[in-house]
From TrEMBL, chains A, B:
<dbReference type="InterPro" id="IPR036271">
    <property type="entry name" value="Tet_transcr_reg_TetR-rel_C_sf"/>
</dbReference>
<feature type="DNA-binding region" description="H-T-H motif">
    <location>
        <begin position="31"/>
        <end position="50"/>
    </location>
</feature>
<dbReference type="Pfam" id="PF00440">
    <property type="entry name" value="TetR_N"/>
</dbReference>
<keyword id="KW-0805">Transcription regulation</keyword>
<dbReference type="InterPro" id="IPR050109">
    <property type="entry name" value="HTH-type_TetR-like_transc_reg"/>
</dbReference>
<feature type="domain" description="HTH tetR-type">
    <location>
        <begin position="10"/>
        <end position="68"/>
    </location>
</feature>
<keyword id="KW-0238">DNA-binding</keyword>
<dbReference type="InterPro" id="IPR001647">
    <property type="entry name" value="HTH_TetR"/>
</dbReference>
<dbReference type="InterPro" id="IPR009057">
    <property type="entry name" value="Homeodomain-like_sf"/>
</dbReference>
<keyword id="KW-0804">Transcription</keyword>
<protein>
    <submittedName>
        <fullName>TetR/AcrR family transcriptional regulator</fullName>
    </submittedName>
</protein>
Amino acid sequence: MGRPLRADAERSVRAILEAAERVLADDAGASMEQIAEAAGLTRITVHRRFANRQALLEALAVSAKQQLLDAIGEARPDSAPALVALYRVTANVLRVKNTWRFTLSHATPHTSAAAAVWEEIDTYTVELLARAQHEGLLAPDADLDWTRQVYYALLSEALDRPGANQDPAAQDPDALAALVIDTLLHGAGPRG
Amino acid sequence: MGRPLRADAERSVRAILEAAERVLADDAGASMEQIAEAAGLTRITVHRRFANRQALLEALAVSAKQQLLDAIGEARPDSAPALVALYRVTANVLRVKNTWRFTLSHATPHTSAAAAVWEEIDTYTVELLARAQHEGLLAPDADLDWTRQVYYALLSEALDRPGANQDPAAQDPDALAALVIDTLLHGAGPRG
DNA sequence: CCTATTTGCGTCATCCGTGTATCAGATAGA
DNA sequence: TCTATCTGATACACGGATGACGCAAATAGG
């Protein structure tokens, strides 16, 4: 679109997005003023970068979802057995999801841009699950759409879990990933 | 508190609560005006029954949670084996949760009254799960708090499931209950 | 160092939702 | 029927959030 932003302006955009995540996580109806303050900027500057509230929300959604995609890519899931891939992806996703709790849990894709990234993530997840099914990790007759839905839900719940630690951010993603996958594959019933 | 409401006023209160559920489900930030209109009333009348927006939200929360408790009670869960009880409770809860989607999913208990009902439901659920554990339905070392969390999440997901039917309200609660419990107990993995 | 860009400040207008008050008409219920 | 109660209409005050304007100071980056 326009010319590239200057380095400091770029930093401002980052600061605004991160501040928005923090502030909105605490109060979904927070004002632009509060977000600006949390970013160490003025409301006017925020307005300069994002025409209106809606634009900010959309940018936030796209940014977070892009980070999710990156985290999935970093796990290099296609170069390992499904179970290993599932572990790595889960741990990475938990990290990102923990950082962008508000944005990723209110992920109503009111925009085509956001919807596109979301679609990509969904598709990829189902492919991974299908591979797991072929390798015998999932029941042959398992409904993959339902499984994906459950998987997403477990990811969210794992982060909201009141752990032994006070600070939820300090929970070990690898341990949580193990919990998520174990529950996804076997539920809470006794092991055969 | 005050004297009992007249019959028509009582009906208005019901209409307002039901309208609020419908309207807020579509837009969580909807105005009192919109809610009033949906209830076939004026904003002024809404204000007469609920001093401010917060009061309406709280009344909504208490009402819905009370219906949940009633639904659980109607299942007479203590007079049957844990598995049967679990089925009956799940089916009943799904019915209520489907009617009060918004209210019950944004169940942030900002009030002591709402928190009390919630606490009661939580306690009861864990007790039921503990009974299931004793009867061998759950693994002996299963974390019941985590299991309850997963159970709640599955209930929500089941209602958001895009079924074969267009109308989600038309989904058979018994079939959904079976799906929820099966997933809770065994996950998506192959059966032993 | 010099210029284009960014940012903060003060100020303004406007819209929207909320909450209140009064009065007249309609209705429930005894 | 008759009275207490409920509802609607109109109007007003208030606060908060939004969005836009020009101007001066600070700063990035060639």
